[in-house]
């Protein structure tokens, strides 16, 4: 069995274990949440009208950790290089730290500035242990430059901005039942393919663990949700997607292809950027909660909650297909299917609205 076949087998095993573990753990965590009053209560910004357990991130992280660690141990972790092992643990421990920070925010509503400082600190530790953007592939610009080598300071700044930015983008995107988990699942599946194509088995296994946990969590998180992931869960999946995308999109000696992670996470990143600019232009704090996100806008113009989530899923699928088309020659069918999915979803919703 060659390395590509071994990597593919590892990702499949990890994905299946993650789904099963998360499916089993989610109802247990939901019950614990209700028993201990760990609930998300309705308010003017929330879509739900009754208390819901908000500690679903615990089920997600259990699924990720058990599946990824057991897969690596089963397939003999010692066969990987020391650098791969170091990065595996850097991502695993880093996303766990982000989860703990988010869980603390769920319980005690941390102030924005100290929370941001802690996020940058965690990203800095991950950077120090190998989760970093050191070399950026530039040939796609057509400027005659193959790649751009970064200084340590520039590498630290870009890596921290990417990890912290993506983490908060997913956190802010988690506004409707099943939205963040579904977008995470689609994005992680794309990162599996990208990682395997670049020989990044470590990132593919972690992406498989994240994809399985996200999809397994949807069983009780789709509308009407019976459990929410909370800030702990959204910080977890956001930091996971950010760090895994760095690793999976990097090849030697060319470096990181920035188009791949940017396309996959384009929707939540653009949503966060637009919201921040709007808040600042209105003289408000960029951390001020509101109902100005993409999903809120779609609800305001008449889309149902289910259709809003489905539409955003289809856009995410389309963007992921475009990203995959940049590295594979045989994904035009996937690109076509995703485009048709987006068009059909939008057309159906417009017809429904026209009848109202």
Question: Could you characterize what this model shows?
Answer:
It is a single chain. Helix 1 (3-35) packs antiparallel against helix 2 and helix 2 runs antiparallel to helix 7 (201-221). With 356 residues, the chain is mainly alpha-helical. It has one domain. The protein is 70% helix and 4% strand. The termini are far apart. The mean pLDDT is 89. The strands form three sheets. It has a two-stranded antiparallel ribbon with strand order 1-2. A two-stranded antiparallel sheet has the order 3-4. The longest helix is centred in the first third of the chain and has 33 residues, at 3-35. The chain is built from 13 helices and six strands. A hairpin with a 3-residue loop joins strand 5 (250-251) and strand 6 (255-256). The protein has helices spanning 3-35, 57-74, 82-108, 112-128, 152-173, 179-197, 201-221, 230-248, 259-264, 266-281, 294-300, 305-325, 332-355, and strands at 39-40, 52-53, 135-137, 147-149, 250-251, 255-256.
